[in-house]
Amino acid sequence: MAASRYLEHSPARVLQQLLLDLGLGGDPEDDPVPAWPVFVSREPSSPDECLTVYDTEERRHGRTMADGAKVVHYGVQVRVRSRTYEAGRAKADAVQATLEKGVYQTNVSIEGHAYTVGNVSGAALRTLGKDVPGSKRDLFVVNGLVALAEIA
Fold first, then answer.
1. Buried b (16+ CB within 10 A) or exposed e, 61-71
2. What does each C-alpha distance from 115 to 33, 57, 147 come to in angstroms?
3. Residue 74 lies in domain
């Protein structure tokens, strides 16, 4: 997907909103904090079960011939943390399947800005093992590349 200018929000923030819109997690700003809150770039020590979205390395594919727009796929990572392996694995599987198969030309709105998420490719799930030895929380990540453009 061509991106002709800087995005107003980071790809991680756009993906956070997408996960919220798709019902895969809740808004951490809600009171009380919902099940599986989705954070961006900063994972608090609680609650035990949460999702955190990070920006990772993007892939630049050059420019389009028609208008010279840059073609970029933005790297993202969704980290899943859970009290139990079973719950964490189930949530990570749901995130991976939804991102890989359920996102196509999906519109997302954030603070008056609109984006189209063309797709998420290469959504690969990895098991990281346990969090800090004392917590015994299980960790998983889903890494992928997002085709993303801000709608003018």
1. eeeeeeeeeee
2. 26, 20, 10
3. 2-151
Sign of the four-CA dihedral 44, 42, 53, 29:
positive
Whether 150 has a pLDDT exceeding 60, the answer reads: yes
CATH of the domain at 46: 3.30.2000.30
CB-based contacts of 24: which residues, under 8 Å, 6+ apart?
36, 38, 51, 91, 94, 95, 98
Please give the helix or strand (H or E) that residue 50 lies within, else none: strand 50-63
Residue 142 class from Cβ within 10 Å (0-12 exposed, 13-18 middle, 19+ buried)?
buried
Reference 15, options 101, 140, 103, 138; nearest CA is 103
State the total domains in the chain: 1
- pTM value? 0.90
Tokens of 99: 């991102």
pLDDT at 73 over 70: yes
